[in-house]
């Protein structure tokens, strides 16, 4: 199917962008999860390793949790798994001995480099039919919707049943 030639989307797409976004996200996540299996990691491992690799300073668990907008306690098992796989090390923070600094190991660097190649290849597979301009527009739009730090889904009061 030529995505550029589709001038008018089907009604269910035009009427419910949230559904379409969820469908595309689910499809992308499933493919990514499947492609990471040979590397021995899952998307949550990729997220933590990516934060650590992009950080401009040493990161604590609390800093990683902040970047991913998660509770620090929810990362404990992920960090344990990464450490067990020799992908990261925990080191005492010299500035605060109560905290650990998370450091990516050489093995972890190799895994995240391979995972980034997987992500780029999947992007090309999923969005290859779009022009570069439309891909750039999509990236800007998705960043505005989902990539803004601190932005949460709106909450509504529970309705009585």
Task: Describe what you observe in this structure.
With 161 residues, the protein is mainly alpha-helical. The chain has a single domain (11-145), classed as Arc Repressor Mutant, subunit A. It has helices spanning 11-15, 17-36, 43-54, 61-68, 76-84, 106-127, 132-146; strands spanning 59-60, 88-93, 96-104. It has a three-stranded antiparallel β-sheet. β2 (88-93) and β3 form a beta hairpin.
Distance between the termini: 43 Å
**Largest sheet geometry:** 3 strands, antiparallel
Q: How many helix segments?
A: 7
Output mean pLDDT: 85
- Helix and strand composition category: mainly alpha
Q: Percentage of helical residues?
A: 55-70%
Let me know the CATH homologous superfamily: Winged helix-like DNA-binding domain superfamily/Winged helix DNA-binding domain
Q: Strand-and-helix sequence, N→C?
A: HHHEHHEEHH
| Total strands | 3
The CATH class is identified as: Mainly Alpha
Strand order of the largest sheet: 1-3-2
Total domain count: 1
User: If you consult CATH, what is the topology?
Assistant: Arc Repressor Mutant, subunit A
Shape: elongated
So, CATH architecture? Orthogonal Bundle
Could you tell me the strand content as a percent range? 5-15%
Q: How large is the radius of gyration? A: 19 Å
Low-confidence stretches: none
């Amino acid at each position: 199917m030529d995505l550029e030639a589709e001038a008018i989307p089907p009604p269910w797409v035009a009427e419910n962008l949230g559904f379409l976004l969820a469908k595309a996200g689910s499809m992308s996540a499933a493919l990514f999860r499947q492609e990471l299996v040979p590397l021995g990691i899952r998307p949550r491992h990729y997220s933590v390793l990516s934060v650590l690799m992009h950080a401009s300073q040493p990161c604590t668990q609390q800093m990683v949790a902040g970047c991913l907008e998660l509770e620090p306690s929810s990362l404990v098992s992920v960090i344990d798994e990464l450490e067990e796989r020799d992908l990261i090390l925990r080191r005492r923070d010299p500035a605060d001995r109560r905290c650990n600094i998370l450091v990516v190991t050489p093995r972890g660097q190799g895994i995240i480099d391979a995972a980034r190649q997987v992500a780029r290849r999947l992007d090309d597979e999923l969005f290859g039919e779009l022009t570069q301009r439309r891909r750039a527009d999509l990236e800007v739009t998705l960043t505005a919707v989902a990539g803004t730090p601190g932005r949460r889904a709106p909450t509504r009061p529970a309705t009585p049943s």
